[in-house]
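Supplementary Text 2. Reproducibility record for the structural model of the 144-residue chain.

All settings were left at their defaults, and a single model was retained for analysis rather than an ensemble. We include the record here because the model underlies the residue-level annotations in Supplementary Table 4.
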Amino acid sequence: MTTHDKEILINAPVEKIFTFLINPGNLLQIWPSLTEVTNEKLLSNGGYRSNWKYKMCGMHFHGTGEVTDIDPNSWFTFKTHGAVDSTITWTFRVKDGQTRVTLTAEYRVPLTLVGRLTEAIITKMNDKEADLILHNLQARFEAS
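Retained model, structure tokens:
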């Protein structure tokens, strides 16, 4: 299991950031390798269920995901199933009008599709992408 744990401080209200991130279709604006989100359905817990397509090292993956646990404006967990199973937890902490956003992603690279060397490369690429996702999120809310 591989884990990436990244955080960033954003000069924006937690409610706006949380509302943006809980909707999986919005992730297309900040997540470079996420190529498609379809069939979004609002769940009774306030989260969503959706289908996704993702491109990693030239390979295309697809699956489903849903918010399984949620504490509004504090954190939520989005679990994906398909070619790549993952658990993505977003955590939000407010301090002095700013929001510290933490992205924790846990996943297993499907070794039936790649070798050990490629697994190390994919892990490094995904680590850099986690940083990019958070910087894109920050730019989206701090632009102008």
